Amino acid sequence: MNDLIDLAFKNILRTKTRTGLTVFGVLIGITAIVALGSISEGINTMINEELEFLGGTIMVTSEEGGGFMMGFGGSEITPEQIDELESFSGVKEVVPLTFAIGEMAAMQGPEYMIIGVDPAKQEFYVGKGIELDSGRELESDNEFSVMLGYKYAEDHDLEVGDTLEFEEEDFEVIGIFEENKDVDEIIVMPLGTMMEVYDLDSYGAAYVVPDNVGKIESLAEEIEEDFDDLSAQTQAEIAKQAAQIVDTIRVFTLGMAGISAVVGGLGVMNTMIMSIMERRREIGIMKSIGATNRFILTQILLESIMITLIGGILGVLIGSLGSYSLRFVAGGLAQARVTFDLVFWSLIFTTFLGLFGGFYPAWKAAKLDPIEAIRYE
Amino acid sequence: MSNLIEVKDVKKIYNQGKSNELIVLKDIDVKIKKEEMIILFGPSGSGKSTLLHIIGCLDRPTSGKVFIEGRDVSRLSDDELALVRKDKIGFVFQQFNLIGALTALENVELPMRISGMKREKSRKRAKELLKSVDLGERLNHFPRQLSGGEMQRVAVARALANEPDIILADEPTGNLDSKTGEEIVNLMVKLNKKGYTLVIVTHDRTIAKYASRKLNIKDGKIWRR
Fold this sequence. Notes:
The complex is a heterodimer.
Chain A: H1 2-12, H2 16-52, E1 58-62, H3 79-87, E2 91-101, E3 104-105, E4 109-110, E5 113-117, H4 122-126, E6 132-135, E7 145-148, H5 150-155, E8 163-166, E9 169-177, E10 186-190, H6 191-197, E11 205-210, H7 216-226, E12 230-234, H8 235-278, H9 280-288, H10 293-330, H11 340-367, H12 370-375
Parallel strand pairs in A: 5-10, 7-9
Antiparallel strand pairs in A: 1-11, 1-12, 2-5, 2-11, 3-4, 6-9, 7-10, 8-9
Chain B: E1 3-14, E2 22-33, E3 37-41, H1 48-55, E4 63-68, E5 71-72, H2 78-88, E6 89-92, H3 104-114, H4 119-132, H5 148-159, E7 166-170, H6 178-194, E8 197-201, H7 205-208, E9 213-218, E10 221-222
Parallel strand pairs in B: 3-8, 3-9, 6-7, 7-8
Antiparallel strand pairs in B: 1-2, 1-4, 4-5, 9-10
Helix pairs in contact in B: 3-4, 3-5, 4-5, 5-6
C-alpha cells in the first residue's frame, strides 16, 4: 500500500501544472464550503445562545402578534386569559409581561425596551445565569424602581440611586445587570407600576411554566387548542423555527459551495482521463508484468483522491483563514465558526470527489487490453 | 518429463462471425519442456506474436487449451491471468517498454512491488539483478539516459524480478544494432544455461544457432519442427 501511494504521488507530480490547476479547482470549492459553512455555524451558535435565555418555559402571545422574531410588539393578552391560564391543568405558574419600546434612535431601531414583570416572578424573566452588576433586585413592594441593562446604564451615565423619567414619572435605579447582550438594552420595571403609568389593560406576552417540563410540548398544544387567539411556543418550537432558518441558510450556502466543488470534481475526472490516455502504454506494461485490473483501478483512484485531498486540505486551511479574518472585517456582526464536524465532512466530501472524479477513468484504465495498450504510441 | 508449456488445438480468431473476421492462429499444438530455448520465426502477420501473447497469458485463445505447469490457463479471468504473468512469466519486448518516469532500479523493482514484496528486499534484489546485467553503475539513470542495449538489459533484469519459470521475448534485438544485439543474445543464452525456459520471437540468426528448437509459423500454422 505504501508503495502504491508513493507511485501515485510520483505520477501526479509528473504533470505539475496540470495537477496544480486541478488541485486549485478543488481548492476553490472546499474553501467556499468551509468559509460559508463556518458562517452558518456561527449563526447557528448565535441563535442557540439566544434560545438558552428563554429557559424551559412556554411563551404565549396573541395570534396576531405572534412569532418569536417579531413577538414583542402588538400582542395582547387580557387579564381574564391570564387567569384562565393560571387555572389550566399542568400549569405551574404564569408570568405576564408588558412591553414598551423606547425612543427610536437614528438608524439603530429602538434605543431600549421596557419590560414590566411582577417582582415576585422576576426570576422567570431574568432567567438563569444573569446576575446583577450592582444594586439589588426588585422587591414586591417596589413601585417606582427599575433595573437597567449594563449598556443602557453606561450610555446614559446612570448608577444605582440615580433617577430617570418615564412618562413624566421619576424612577429610581435600584439595580444594574452585569454585561450580557440579552439584557444590555433592557429596562425592567414592576408590572403594576408599568400598567398604570403606560395606561395598559392587557399584557404583551406571558411565560407559562409547566408542572412537568417533560410535558411542555403537549401543554403548549393544549393551550393553543383551548385559546383560539393565543399562540403558545415552547423553546423546542422556537428552536425548530430557528433551526429552519439556519437550515435554509446552510442549504443555500453549502449548495452554492457544493456546486463549485462538483465542478472541481469534474476537473479531476478530466485530468485523470487525459492522464490515462497519455499513460495507456505504461498501464499496458504494468499489466504485462503482472498488475491486476484491481491494482490499476486502485492506483488511478489513489491518484485522483490524492489530488482532491491536497486541494481539500489546502481549501480547509484557506477557508478557515478566511472565516477567521471575517471577524476583523465584519466586527461582531458575523461570527463564523470552523467546527470539527465541518472540517471532517469537508474532507470526507473531498475524498468522495476524488472517488467520483477518478472512478470512470480508473475503470477505463483497468479494462485496457494489455496488448493493445502496449502497442499504443 | 512433463511439459512446462502445452498448447493444444489453439485457434485465435479476431472479430469472429463478422465480415472482417480474421483467423490468426489455426490448430496450433506445441509442447515446450523445461529449460528449452524455442525460436518462433515466420513472416510478419504470421501469428507468432499472437502465439507468444497467448503463451504469456496476455491473451486467451478463441478455442483450444493452454497449460502452464499442467494448469489450464485458457479460460482464466483477467486478474487470474495477471497473477500467472506475475509469478511465472517474464516479458522482454522489442520496444523495451520501460516506464520513463522511473529509474532503472525502480523499473526492475516494479514487478516485485506489484507482488507486495517489502521495499528493502525488492531494492536489494533489483540492485543484484542490474549488476548481473552489468548495469550496476546505472541504477539511478532514467530510461532516456540509457542506450538501447542498456534499456534492453534493464528490461531483461525486470523480466527476472519475480523469479519466473519462463522468459518470453518478442524481437528482443529488433531495435538494436548488431553489436548490442549480440550482447542481448549472449544474455539470453546465459539465462537458458542457468535453467530458464525461453521462447523468443525473432529473425535474428545469431539467436537461432543457440536454439534447442525452431518453429516456423506461417499463415497461423506451424510448418516444421
